[in-house]
Amino acid sequence: MRSDAPADAGFDDPLADRVNEARLATLGLLVAGLVHEINTPLGAINSNHDVLRRALGKLQDILADEVVEPHELDEVRRIVRAVDGILRVNDLAVERMRGLVSNLRNFGRIDGSGTDMADLHEGIDSTLAILAHELRPISVVKEFGELPRVPCRPQQVNQVFMNLLMNARQATPDGGSITIRTARLGDAVQVQISDTGAGIPSGQLGRIFEPGFTTRDGRIGMGLGLAICRQIVDRHGGRLHAASEPGRGATFTLHLPLVQPPRIEETVQRSPDRTEASHDEANSDTR
Ligand SMILES: Nc1ncnc2c1ncn2[C@@H]1O[C@H](COP(=O)(O)OP(=O)(O)O)[C@@H](O)[C@H]1O
Ligand SMILES: [Mg+2]
Known about the structure:
It is a single chain. The protein is of the alpha+beta class. The chain is built from nine helices and seven strands; from the N terminus they run H-H-E-H-H-E-E-H-E-E-H-H-E-E-H-H. Helix 2 (about 70-105) crosses helix 3 (about 120-130) and helix 3 packs across helix 5. The longest helix has about 50 residues, at about 15-65. The protein is elongated, with a radius of gyration of 25 Å. Magnesium ion binds next to helix 5.
C-alpha cells in the first residue's frame, strides 16, 4: 500500500528522523545563545543575593541593641525598601529563566511529536524566545491576526518557523527588521515571515528549496533548512513559497489547511494506535 503512494507516505517516515536531526543541530547552534540568556538573570540573582545578605547583616546589627534609635529606624526602613526592590528584580529574573526553560522544553518536547490542534502563535512565540539572543540586533514586528487552532504536528511546524526565522536573521543586517504576519484565509491559515535583508536574486529563487542548495560557506547540514520546511509543509497538505525583491528583503509565505486530509484527522480524533485498515480507508478517501 505504502509503496503505491511514495508522495503520501504519512508521518511515520525518515522525514521525522531528519527533522529531529535538524532540530538537534539547530539547538546545538543555539546553546551558546541560551547559556548567555540564562546567565544574565542568574548573574542578577547572584549579585542580589550578596546585597540581601549584607542587608540582613545590617538589620541584625541594628536589632542587636536593646533599644532602636530613631535614626536607626530610618535605616531599617531604607533597608526594607531596598530588599523589596531586590525581590522584585529577582522575581523578574526567575520568571525569565523559567520562561526560557519552558520554551526550550516546548520546542524540543518529545511527547509533543504527535498531531495536535496547535496554537500557532504559541509556537511562533516560543521559537522567538529560543532565538531571542540571535535576534537581539534585529527588530521583530508581530502582526498577529485571529487564528483558530490548526491540526498539525506542532513540533514540525515549529521547526519550519525556526528555519525561516534563522534564514531571515542570517540575511538581515543588524538594525534591520523581521515581520511576522498571521491571518486566517478561509479554510487555511497564513503565516508570512518577511525580512529587510539582502533578498534572493531572481535566478536563485527557483532553487532555494532544493536540498543542499546554499549560498553560505559550506558547513555540515547546510542547505537543508528550506528543503525540510517544504517537506514538512507538503506533508501537512499546505504550501510554502518565497518572494523577494533583491536588495530589499524576502518574504516566505506559509499556508496550512484548517481541514486536514483524512489521515491527519484520524490521528487527531482517534487513538494513535489506529489500525492499518484505517490508513487504507483514509488513503482511498483522498484518492
Ligand atoms: N530570508 C532569506 N533571505 C535571503 N536569502 C535566503 C533567505 N532564506 C533563504 N535564503 C537563501 O536560500 C538558501 C537556502 O536556505 P536553507 O535551505 O535554509 O539553507 P542554508 O540556510 O543552510 O543555506 C540560503 O543559502 C540563502 O541563499
Ligand atoms: Mg537555513
